[in-house]
Amino acid sequence: PIDLAGRAMLPGFVDAHSHITFALGMVGQANVSSPPVGDVTDIPSLVAALRELRDRRETPRGEWIIGWGYDPQQLAEQRHPTRLDLDPAFPDHPVMVVHVSGHGAVLNSRALELAGIGRATPTPPGGVIARLDDGAQPAGLLMETAYAPVQALLPPPSNDDRLAALDAAQQMYAANGYTHAQDGHTTLADAALLLQANRGGLLYLDIAALPSFMSAREFLADPSYRFGEYDGHLKFQGIKFVQDGSPQGRTAYMTAPYLGSGNGDAPGWRGEPIQPRERFVRQVRHVFDAGVQIFVHANGDAAIDDAIAAVRAAGVTARDDRRPVVVHSQFQRPDHLSEYAALGMSSSYFTNHCYFWGDVHMANMGADRAAFISPLRAAREHGITFSNHTDFNVTPLDPFFTLWTATNRQSRSGATIGEAQAVDIYTALQAITTGAAWQMFEERRKGAIRKGMLADFVILDRDPLTGRADDLRGLRVLETIKQGRTVYRAS
Are 197 and 163 in contact (CB under 8 A)? Predict the structure, then answer.
């Protein structure tokens, strides 16, 4: 027996949505995030962080320099950087600075040239190409479908380097008490890497991978990908669809227009779907017919309408227990909740938005719409099983910050964003344990401490249920145990 001496042992945390393979590439990139994630406060400090990376790594001319996590609303200039900001410092390197949402980036002129994007390039459906004041020359910002092709231009890191980074990536999760991690949008290359790592015994946390809808036919046709069952520590859980963008990037698909302006969008801008509803519905039906679970990234209420329509068109209801998960479900309307309950749909919420972008949502959506983001309490009242996530690396992996935002819903400015949707600490804990496990069809294996369950535990310095919600951010992980073996211990 182990005397906890006043400490608390909880079931290991279950990551409901993040991107563990993203962590493999972050080592060679600059952190251009604003506090509390990084130190960038304005465009000059962003450029300085990119310069520091270039100089430290002695990046040869012509090779890419990449930064991740910039947030225009947190920059002193209150705007996106442009190629005009980046070009003077980097005339000989292609530069890409990834937006905090992960749904777009700013490119300098060298990078735009490599991407073949210029004055005559049309904006693709479902995408954004911001323009300079002349209305023609690209400013550098690309979002959604305009951004996706650029990622194919980047030189892939070597397979050996990515495999070597897997231990550090798993330790990031274990240090935060997670015994189960997710890869929330897995490409064919990432899937091959995970299979190789699993065969080589390099995985010690459970990883649930969600293969991308863009390669769904290849994944479903290949028997290497056995959906819904573990091989060692790896499971391919379901197909991940993306049907809109990010609300902080003004690319979430809404039924009512955004307020103000941004990204150069015109009055009446509501965002756009990634693909037309008819095509999306056909693809979802194909995955359901293959007996595979679906996950749909949908932030805006119009994108959520599409997700509901697709599940209904597939003939799926709650009685079928197919557990379609709508990732983020940020701007749900109240009428969506009864639809979710009837169709057996589940939300993976993202209450960290209340802190990081609550003030931005108030400006972009108005108080009423902003107050209903991630409506945990309303979902609970409708009997919907839900989870809560960090979307790492969009926000930090810190589970205690997620508990705090679920119970406090406080913004950067100190405003409360939808007080009526705050939940108690126990409910917030369920969203990162039992709720997340249920979404993965693992409620009989993990998420609780019970006879017959996996010995997945996290030991904290104190019991989160005995303190105040305001104190949650001060909790510390002392040890993480996966199936009876310590995989992390605080020094």
Answer: yes
pLDDT on residue 76: 96
Residue 50, token pair as written in the block? 């990119």
For the stretch 477-480, contacts whose Cβ atoms lie closer than 8 Å and that sit 24 or more positions apart, written own/partner, are: 477/175, 477/176, 477/177, 478/7, 480/12, 480/174, 480/175, 480/177, 480/178, 480/179
In this structure, how many other beta carbons lie within 10 angstroms of the beta carbon of residue 63? 12
Residues 406/388, Cβ–Cβ less than 8 Å = yes
Return the pLDDT at 136: 86
Cβ(430)–Cβ(385) below 8 Å: no
Asked if residue 209 lies in contact with residue 236, where contact means CB atoms within 8 angstroms, the answer is: yes
What percentage of the chain carries pLDDT values higher than 70?
Answer: 100
Compute the average pLDDT of residues 205-211. 98
Helices (H), 107-265: 109-115, 148-151, 159-174, 188-199, 216-221
Start-to-end Cα distance in the chain: 22
Say yes or no to pLDDT of 156 above 80: no
Closest Cα partner for 388 from 361, 352, 420, 354?
352
Least-confidence region, from 37-46, 153-162, 275-284, 407-416: 153-162
Structure letter (DSSP) for residue 466: G
- Note the pLDDT of residue 318: 98
Determine whether 301 is exposed, middle or buried from the number of CB atoms within 10 Å of its CB (0-12, 13-18, 19+).
buried
Of 9-18, 79-88, 126-135, 454-463, least confident by mean pLDDT is: 126-135
Residue with tokens 């804990």: 429
Residue 92: strand, helix, or coil? coil
| CA–CA dist 10, 446 (Å, integer) | 11
- 169 neighbors 157 (Cβ within 8 angstroms): no
Q: How far is CA 424 from CA 129, 201, 430, 470, in A?
A: 42, 39, 10, 12
Residue pointed to by tokens 């240090």: 175
pLDDT tens digit string along 328-375? Answer: 999 999 999 999 999 999 999 999 999 999 999 999 999 999 999 999
What is the strand order of the sheet 178-186 is part of?
A: 13-14, 178-186, 206-211, 234-236, 230-231
Contacts of 225 (CB under 8 A, 6+ apart): 191, 211, 219, 236
Residues 6 or more apart from 179 whose CB is under 8 A from it? 12, 13, 14, 205, 206, 446, 454, 456, 457, 458, 480, 481, 482, 487
Q: What pTM value is reported for the model? A: 0.88
pLDDT at 1: 72
Q: Report the C-alpha gap between 328 and 346 in whole angstroms.
A: 10
What torsion do the CA atoms of 443, 449, 451, 457 make, to the nearest 10 degrees? Answer: 100
Closest by CA position to 245, among listed 60, 455, 104: 104
